[in-house]
Please model this.
Amino acid sequence: MPTTMPDSETKICQNCRASFAIDASDLDFYRKISVPPPTFCPDCRMQRRFAWRNERTLYRNTCAATGKPVISCFAPDSGLTVYDRDYWWSDNWDPFSFGTDYDFQRPFFAQFSELLRRVPMPAVFSTNTVNCNYCNYVGEMKDAYLVGASWAGENLAYASREDYCKDSMDLFGVMLSERCYDCVSVLKSSQTYFSQNCESCSACALCLECRGCNDCVGCVNLRNKSYHIFNQPYDRESYRQALAELRLDTQSGLAAARQRFEELKLRSLRKFANITSCQNVTGDYIANAANCRFIFDSADDVRDCRYCQNIASKAYGCYDGYGIGAQCELTYESFNTGVQGVRQCFCGTVYGGTDIYYSINCHNCMNLFGCVGLRNKEYCIFNRQYGKEEYRELRARIIRQMSDRPYVSKVNSQKSVVYKYGEFYPIELSPFAYNATVAQDFMPLSPDKIRSEGYTYREPEVPPYQATIAAQDLPDSIQDATEAITKEIISCQGCGKVYRIISKELSFLEQAGLPLPRRCPECRHQDRLALRNPMKLWHRHCACGGRGRQLNTTPSQDVVASCEGVVCQNTAKHFHGEAPCPNEFETAYPPDSPAIIYCEQCYNAEVV
Model:
């Protein structure tokens, strides 16, 4: 008699011991790619992938082939063989020379870790770049400094997840923009500073959720407005005068304006999620997607995907990916993977190709299993090539052996994790310290917790320099800064470590009329990340109570609906009349967030 497949499963995560659901759509996907259901929950799977990607931490290393000094994302003591990027892409070496027969007496992951540390890796992952020595995971880039996970830009510094930007600095998630500074999730804007979630804006500063605005400062939720300060309208001349009085070219003036802006933000409405032109999706920062669940930061044309983050355009039927897309299908448990690829599973930095499993840094290949550093190859296992039938038979034997002789990660005396076929690589086998990876950005752990979980912690390098000036002693106004400031070594107001103002940074700030930063680039990056919600979802109700914000029942959540003590009042009629809004949703705003969260209907009634 035919076997009836289950509609759903509930499992206990091997790692955190939390229960998680696997529904019928998930099970159907796993059958399509012939892998068993996961034994880690979505959050722990995400953490595991993130711990294998270092985007921004760079080290001084040496090319093993030429002896040339290189800047690399791999630390000198990582155990990896590192080649200069251009040498790695040359024909001067043969990745097959590092191949080995598979040993059926040893676990797969132990053998793969050894192969990964033998086969040379490029010092950084970059493509078509000019003067971008201190950049990683970038492409089509020119004149960039400390930029990571970005594509197509020119004259940039201190940026992550930037796409098609120019003459800008201190960015996170900014696209198609120029002359922007210290912005988060800004699109198609110019001369926009200290702003978040804005689109098609120019000559704006300290703005949140504004669209089509110009010459606005300290504003929230404006549409197609000009000459506004803290949401109050001005005529052109009065605006210029009021703007001058703010003295945004000084640190003291900027700090005072920030304080007023933060107060306005607290009494302003927020839409439950940044979702545009989508159908049947949950997550945040999503555009033009359909039938997706738990996805974050997707660019365009994404369909039938789940548990993915940082997705480029044209991703179809992909699960558990970070940095995937550019026309891919049926990828699973992979990072930095896609680019016209199909069935790329348990992979890292794999571009192009079909049916590639458990492979890293392989490009334009087909039918690989457990390979590293291959290009334009097929039917390979552990960097050895086989005939078609021999490959299939050996691959099937290895998959069975991975379950019969699994890799066991002994975390501590109370916890062990079993890795069979269908699991991503264990975190402790990552070539990166946990605190040097994306995992530390989005799922930070203390040094003690990192070590207790069996992961690698690396003490941050301390530059061999002594501060020559404290951040608080920098000139208050950019007008008082001279080129001599680029020679100073500054102690950061945040972490106390030292940093410098580079020449292009000083030039940008002078032209923009903005004060010198008091925090180092790393602290500024963390400040931008703090403006984003976690990559988690909570089930919540619309806060609209009919006439305005519905008061929460927990006093601690009823904070500062207005800095003047007045609860936010609606200004338009809503579909639910004066009764509380019945809408519910999945949102990345945590339940303890002080933000006033409205559903899309109520938000649009008030803002659009």
